[in-house]
Design goal:
single chain, alpha/beta, TIM Barrel, Immunoglobulin-like, nine-stranded parallel beta sheet, seven-stranded mixed beta sheet, 17 helices, 29 strands
Length: 662
Amino acid sequence: MRAWPKDGIAFGGDYNPEQWPRSVWDDDMRLMREAGVTFVTLGVFSWSWLEPTKGEYTFEWLDEAMDLLHANGIAVDLATATATPPPWLTSAYPEILPVDHDGHTLWPGSRQSWCPSSRLYRELALSLTDRLAARYHDHPALAMWHVSNEYACHNLPCYCDTCAIAFRAWLEQRYADLDTLNDAWGTAFWSQRYTAWEDILPPRRTTTFANPTQVLDYHRFGSDTLLGFYREEYEVIRRHSSQVPITTNFMTLSNFRLLDYHDWAPLQDVVSTDHYIVDSLEHPRAELSFHGDLTRGLAGGRPWILMEHSTSAVNWQPVNPAKAPGQTVLDSLTHVAHGADALGFFQWRQSRSGSEKFHSALVPHAGEDSDRFREVCELGAISARLGELLGSTVEAEVAVLWDYEALWAMSGPCMPSSAIDYATAPHTFHRILRERGITCDVVHPSADLSRYRVVIVPTLYVVSDENASAIASAAESGAHVVVTYFSGISDLDDHVRLGGYPGAFRDLLGVRVEEFFPLRPGEVVPLSGGGTGSQWSEDARAVDAEVLSTYAAGPLQGRPALTRRAVGEGTASYLGTLPDDATLGSVLDEVIALAAVTPAAQTPPGVEVVRRSSSEGSWLFVLNHTTQEHEVTVTGHDLLTGRDVGPTHRLAGLCAAVVREA
């Protein structure tokens, strides 16, 4: 086996030699050396090449590719190729195909055409995994195993009869008996009481709204089912390959929400993820930073691998803008700033055909004589210069809580407003703090909160008693806790906590809410002292809290909108609405001052700063996301230019500095 690249930030991406004639491969090696590529992910979608018919294996092409990469000093992250079945498999076993919400079979012709619960599919996939692990476990190019690819990207949820049977088994394990299930699902409502397990179905299309807890449990079931599949592939690999690390690539970006990665992360030898810029978002680069912090939270604060991102445009948005010159480097360094120790792209060479032929790549259609490839080579050289910060961690004194179960439940049927999205509040708080040079960890509510000075609890709609108690204990111990609207409302069965909202946090906050007044899209409510609130408002009473702001007009005029309460050594603030950026910034400025949290550096708007540190020193990432030149206060040695800087440093638009601090 080969050690994972350690001389610099590992740099590379998906390599698909099977898409190209053998005559291209030698040119690939030449260009990889020129670009500074140190690793590739190999074989992700190659099942039909490895097993062209059932039981007939053709590994010779993969042998040659592995040998060629080894000869050129490139480490291989070898995929199990089980993400997508070959055509012979779905033709022979059409029962493995997934079924959508309306009962329509999803036919082959793209990718992930398999039911997550199919035992038959798993056995065939595990057979291929076993063959690969047995053949390549000691290959000198092998540095990592890559199980499947982007689980649940296209085939979850599945509503087929196979999933119905598996769902019942999952429910029996979770609840043990039907009385417990009926209580958890609240089946006394609408005559839904179950008297036999076989009567239970997935939440398929029905006459009106599905049972919310049934929908929530189906999310849990889907995530657990695929995690079980991952475990099986992991165990097959481990029988042959005891030392090589194993991972699967998560998708920690805004528009993917189907797996609870907090359950998956402990089973990764190293956490890896894919992230792509979603240009339709109002603040796409702020979202990039958020999900870097989320991935780091999943990794327990340790460095992680960016398995895929794009050099420029993607292919799957309604409009796919190209990145401006410099943004390939800047986006990549933003990921490194937030904890990535490897930079991978999809893919090495831009495809000539297929659904992703217009997805950008390290080698574009224009070839090596192109500005994009020259920027790729620049990034490869930069990656090689950043080896000294490998293993360093990101400093953060603020936690933003993120829970996939709360997201699933809040996205369920019959909410007070379908116009609010779970991610809006956490993204907004994170963005406002980022603009102030404050780095956040994005962590699960069950994380150890004792090391944080500030804990943000945004739209945590469902929460366990234990996690609610831990949040209160953090405030008692000196943390400054900020809770938003629509938090603490329900328990883990999605049963409303009675006695007044915000339920689990009512006593902590000293606030009691009698009724929700959600706002329509585009509607705002004025706040006393200036500013506005959007998304949400509510009829609240300050039982034991200081009122910081009230609603200045409308049916709730004079009612508390923002409150704060002293709790032990800390405080607990409550926001019953989503303030505008300026107002929220003022609120957070007060909280930060109370907590004595200081920014990584003072910067102008649009310039992001993040500090990574280790016992060897600290490195300040200065990331200018604007097109204008800006001056920042920083002293040290810039690893990108090789020059000493300070006490100030002028940074051109869409450029970065990585400063080893004096």
